[in-house]
Amino acid sequence: GSYQEPYRNQYHYSAKQNWLNDPNGLIKYDGVYHMFYQYNPQGNEWGNMSWGHATSTDLVHWKEQDVAIPESDENAWVDFWMKTKDDAKPVHYLGRPTTNWDVWNPNGKRYIFSGSVILDKDNVAGFGKNTLIAYYTSTYQVAVRDDDYSKDQLGNLLGIREVQEQNMAYSTDGGKTFKKYNNQNPVIPVTQVPTSDAGNFRDPKVVYDEANKQWVMPVVSGQEVDLFTSTNLKDWTFQSAIKRAHDVGNGVWECPELIPMKVKGTNKTKWVLSLSVQQGAPAGGSGMQYFIGNFDGKKFIPDSDETMKNPQWLDFGEDFYAGVTFGETPGRTIMLGWMSNWNYVGEQKTTPWHGEMTLPRELTLVRDNSGYSLKQAPVKEVNQLSQGETALDVRKIHARAQSEKTIDIKNFSGTQYKVSADFSWKKNQAPNRLGVKLRASEDGSKYVAVGYDPSSKQVYLDRTKDGESITRQNTKVKLDGNPTNIKLAVYVDTSSIEVFVNNGEKVLTQVVYPNPEQPSDSKGLAFFAESGKVTITRAVGEHFESIWG
Ligand code: FRU
């Protein structure tokens, strides 16, 4: 773990070594941003799930800290009856929790799954003023039995089931370490999961509901979101369920969040329900969607019946998942996601680390003719990484019919930079495609293209020609109307590309591993157009410093 490895991102967070996935418990506390995350302290694959921890004073330079919540070493005997959706009658969950299939393994542990952190300013929970309180999902497996036997007489083994429960832990040392509350008994036990889906009940994201002076905790259970509320932070009452009303296959919902946001330019608050869906996102596999409505203290009320039927998507690339926002950043909604996709995460072979975070993004809720939507931009703090603007030497591209014209940029190349490019064209001369080629090889044969196709009105990111061993599809997003110009802000790092289209109206995030035989030969930048004429009204490159120092 030197932060210098060939595909190590230089201005996106990753753990020095080992596996990470979802960001958890993002919060600003005492001038410091805390990022916890799903982490395997022991290996470079998913497992031993714990909360890793990093801190930053500027959202950009992160320093890795010790593991904040290790997988649980507690190994209490569980003993409860539950009828899940698969059972005809209640079954007896009896035995030691374990996270591997050897149920009687005395070293069985409970995994610390995703969740959130809040700041208890007023000592509502009684652990002291300004205590950080974490809510997470405790996950374990346990044998289920057919009868009420004692510990010594175990009855007939019916099988092994996964259990997910919502637990609480608190930190009185500013997030370094957490104590598990109530001998790690859950604050919401699995026996209270409204859907009876014991193995899919997770990812509590607690938020304060100012209007009703209470805390709200959305938790997913399979294909619905259950809302719980509390006034003392310890006792949680089920209030309502939000059902899925659109078809994205059978993927479960994960990492729900209810985000109160001011509509830009007004004083009005709306509630945004954001969700990660494991399957069925626009680019295939995992992705993030959102719905806009109101919250009445008990129920999320979507703006219309159509709202839940037509999800809006936060990102159209393959790699923006499990994003959640920071707490305690008044007036700013800052979201960070895991830059991957459960569909092909196993094919990403970086070592000795696995998994990177996106740039933190500031979200704004805007209203226009077509209704409410979120706009996104990297937080302004990212600008400090810029080493200055270089004007790129490209003004017009005239490409003959059926041919592509490429203009190589001579005075700018690299693997960690931002490129801003505004293109415009006349309707009757519109090219078939136009855009930029990033991470191009010297001979121009390998590259990642980010471009626009005026006939289909799609912005696309083409990762199929960069020589990767994992061949991925094109990802794309359709723009509204019939534009004759487009603005791209593209953040390129050693193994990722984030594209913000038209000031963050649409975003595409993609990990890339160009040219594995010769990664150093993938630094070129070029502009291109095919069959038509385009004017480049602005073209600026900015090299970015490494955050690893
Ligand atoms: C989302 C997720 C969560 C879960 C965590 C486990 O990526 O599957 O639902 O809590 O990862 O690591």
Automatic annotation (TrEMBL):
Keyword line: Glycosidase, Hydrolase, Signal
Domain Glycosyl hydrolase family 32 N-terminal, residue spans: 12-75, 110-378
Glycosyl hydrolase family 32 C-terminal domain mapped to chain residues: 399-537
Similarity remark: Belongs to the glycosyl hydrolase 32 family.
Protein name per UniProt: DUF5011 domain-containing protein
Source species: Sporolactobacillus terrae
